[in-house]
Amino acid sequence: MGAQRLPQGHFCLAYTFTMLWVKAFHIVFVASWFAGLFYLPRIFVNLAMVQPGSDAERERLLLMARKLLRFTTLLAVPALALGLVLWLHYGIGRGPGNGWMHAKLAVVLLVLLYHHACAAQLRRLRDGQSLRSHVWYRWFNELPVLMLVAAVVLVVVKPF
C-alpha cells in the first residue's frame, strides 16, 4: 500500500482547528488574568481601611494579596505567550489594514504596566509606606475594566 493522499484543504482545516484552540485558551487565560487584576486592588482597598493595631487582619489581607499577585502573574504568562503565537505564527493582525492590532498591543502594554503597578503597590502596603486612601484604590481598581473594554472593542470591532 502506498501513501494515502489527503483530501484537498486538509492542511487548512487542521491549521484552522489548531488556531481556534489556541485562540480559545488565549481568551481563557486573558479573562483569568483580568479577574486577578480586578480583585487585587479590592484587597488594597481593604488593606487601606485596616485600623491600626489590627495586625492579624492586615497580615491575612497581605497574604491573600501576595498569593493572588503570584497566581495572576502565572496566568499572564500563557495569556501573553498564546497571544504571541496567534500574532506571530498565525498572522492575526499582521499586514495592511490591521491598525487595530497596534492599538491592542498598546493596551496590552498598559495592562502589563498596571500589573507591575499592582506589585509595586503591594510592596508599599506590605512595608507600611503607602499613603494612598481606600478611595484612591477604588479608582485604581477601575483601570483594568477600561483596558479590558478597550481590548475587546479593538479585537471585535477592529475600528482601524
Structural overview:
The protein has 160 residues and is mainly α. It has one domain. It has 5 helices and no strands. Helix 1 packs antiparallel against helix 2 (55-89) and helix 1 (10-49) packs antiparallel against helix 4. The longest helix has 40 residues, at 10-49. 20% of the residues are buried.
Secondary-structure blueprint:
Elements: H1 10-49, H2 55-89, H3 99-126, H4 134-140, H5 143-157
Helix pairs in contact: 1-2, 1-3, 1-4, 2-3, 3-5
Q: Give the distance, in angstroms, between the N- and C-terminal Cα atoms.
A: 53 Å
How many separate domains make up the residues?
Answer: 1
Query: What is the helix tally?
Result: 5
Helix content: over 70%
Strand content: under 5%
- What class would the helix/strand composition place it in? mainly alpha
Radius of gyration: 21 Å
**Strand-and-helix sequence, N→C?**
HHHHH
Which runs of at least 5 residues are low in confidence (pLDDT < 50)? Answer: none
**Cα shape:** elongated
Q: Largest sheet at a glance?
A: none
Summed over residues and divided by their number, the pLDDT gives a mean of: 92
Please give the number of β-strands.
0
Name the descriptors:
160 residues, 5 helices, mainly alpha
Kindly summarize this structure in a few lines.
By secondary structure, this protein is an all-alpha fold. It is 78% helix and 0% strand. The protein is elongated, with a radius of gyration of 21 Å.
